[in-house]
Amino acid sequence: MSAATGNCTAEGGVSRGNLRYSAERGQREVFCGLTGIIWLHRKIQDAFFLVVGSRTCAHLMQSAAGVMIFAEPRFATAIIDERDLAGLADANVELDRVVTQLLERRPDIKLLFLVGSCPSEVIKLDLSRAALRLSSRFSPQVRVLNYSGSGIETTFTQGEDACLASLVPGLPRLGEEAAPNLLIVGALADVVEDQMRRLFDEMGIADVQFFPPRRSTLLPAVGARTRYLLAQPFLADTARALEELGARRIAATFPLGAEGTASWLKAAAEAWAVDPSLYRRVTQPAYERAQRALSRYRDLLAGKRIFFFPDSQLEVPLARFLSAEMGMELVEVGTPYLHRAHLSADLDLLPPGTRVVEGQHVENQLDRCHAAKPDLVVCGLGLANPLEAQGLTTKWSIELVFTPIQGFNQAADLAELFARPLVRRTRLVA
After folding, report:
1. How far is the C-alpha of 276 from the C-alpha of 60, rounded, in Å?
2. CA atoms within 13 A on the CB side of 326
3. What is the pLDDT of residue 67?
4. What is the pLDDT averaged over residues 242-267?
5. Which of 163, 209, 299, 383 could disulfide-link to 220, CB 3.0 to 4.6 Å?
6. Lowest mean pLDDT, pick from 92-96, 288-292, 305-309
7. pLDDT tier, 312 (very low <50, low <70, confident <90, very high otherwise)
8. Domain boundaries along the sequence of the chain
9. pLDDT recorded at residue 138
10. What is the pLDDT of residues 3-31, one digit of tens each?
11. Which residues pair with 9 in a beta bridge?
12. pLDDT one-digit tens code per residue, 336-372
């Protein structure tokens, strides 16, 4: 965990489009961006993530992944020790040695990420130059890139954004004469990707690629005829980089819940001029199954009051799902950053008067949370245990990133993640 402090707070808020917006700057609770490696290393199956950091970074990664010591995960830590910090060793020479040993031991690696951390940034270790040097040395067998996973200024999901943005300059280019293609942007579990690909195929949208791909040798091609759909709301830098290559975003809600997924797929169908009757025929069975599955949780969640602390950047689409599809009442929706263009479809579906807070002043938000006494609080790990000790029921926001929650088939799993702590509290009280 890391904290940053400031002294500027905007409290009152402004009404825009029936919502009450405010921005806060102050003490923050930030989970490290290195944690994005936990889901990314499972997704890109021939990539390896080498964190250049401290023993604390190594312990964090091991704990977060739950990987046993004799396993062969696709991540590791090149530990910066006292000799590096004291300038007694050349950190670049040491890094080259570690990378060489790693690639000799793991010839299956085709893409190596050098991941910066708080310690590597504090000592000004230039990993971008190191990546260029190592990439020229080991190419074409291995490509070496770098990005920052530091938690000093960012929230933990921005690790994925930084990783994908580092991949964009190396994407193949499509010519002006190429047929239009659809790009789904954001790491999705393989089972979710397969489900969505089937639905796109059945609607006649054939040229669909997912970014990141399962293998680094299958990078999607991008050009002026590319349209992309965001599967995750925290990919601002990646989206900007894609648009610099000519790709255009399809505005949509995010694919959470039955309604959110249907709207997300419909946006793609309309962009490809899919016949509305074909869209309904393809999506209706899965939509109805999702609605039946969600009905098991509506009675439990409807009317319950929920408070979101800013943590994952998933807060706005989650709030839309819980309010519009499950009948929960939104006390406050906090989010680290509010990209109004990317979130506009979800923001438009929030109930009038919803308080949306961008940024964090954790002490003020704790005061508001205690005063509101919500039924459920969504927050980071650092706040969950203290709030539970004070009698509030919490849901870890990081679990919502680690778990497959997108798409029709996962809608009930998403609802269950919020129902479970309420059921646990009921049993403890009874």
Report:
1. 48
2. 32
3. 53
4. 98
5. 209
6. 92-96
7. very high
8. 14-29+295-429, 33-150, 181-281
9. 95
10. 333 333 344 445 556 899 999 998 777 77
11. 24
12. 999 999 999 999 999 999 999 999 899 999 999 999 9
- The secondary structure element, H or E, covering residue 25 is strand 19-25
Local structure of residue 245 (DSSP, 8 states): T
- What φ, ψ does residue 56 adopt, rounded to 5°? -60, -40
CATH architecture of 14-29+295-429: 3-Layer(aba) Sandwich (3.40)
3-class DSSP state of 345: helix
CA gap 112, 104 in Å, rounded: 13
pLDDT tens string 409-421: 999 999 999 999 9
Compute the residue count for the chain: 430
Geometric angle at alpha carbon 97, from 91 and 102, rounded to 5°:
125
What CATH number matches the domain at 33-150, 3.40.50.10800, 3.90.25.10, 3.40.50.1980, 3.30.2310.20? 3.40.50.1980
User: Cβ(339)–Cβ(408) under 8 Å?
Assistant: no
Domains 14-29+295-429 and 181-281 share a fold: yes
Instruction: Tell me the backbone φ, ψ of residue 429, rounded to 5 degrees.
Output: -70, -35
| Helix (H/G/I), strand (E/B), else coil: 122 | helix
Cβ atoms within 10 A of the Cβ of 155, count? 25
Quote the pLDDT of residue 389.
93
- Rounded Cα distance, 204 and 411, in Å: 24
- Assigned token pair, 171: 């994407």
- As beta bridge partners, residue 356 has 21, 333
Residue 327 near residue 306, CB atoms below 8 Å:
no
Amino acid at 310: P
Structure tokens at 348: 């438009």
Cβ contacts of 12-17, under 8 Å, gap ≥ 24: 13/355, 13/357, 17/347, 17/348
Residue in the structure block whose two tokens are 């508001």:
368
- For domain 181-281, give the CATH number: 3.40.50.1980
pLDDT grade for 392, boundaries at 50, 70 and 90: very high
Peptide bond into 140 cis (omega under 30): yes
